Automatic annotation (TrEMBL):
Pfam families xref list: DUF6897
InterPro entries: DUF6897 (IPR054192), MM0924_fam (IPR048163)
Name by which UniProt lists this protein: Uncharacterized protein
Source species, domain of life: Archaea
Amino acid sequence: MMQSFIVEHYLNKDVDVYCGGPDVFKGNVEACADNVLTLNSEGKLTHIAIDKIIALWGQ
């Protein structure tokens, strides 16, 4: 369910992703498949397990 929400509302958009602790991941949503969110930040890819996401918001 979260995967389809991300694809419908945030695909190809810049977002911040919070998974707990002090880190916030930032980047453009490049893909969201197989329960993994892929962010692109200046050519570097970050892969985040969707079930670990606490909050997600647009930049």
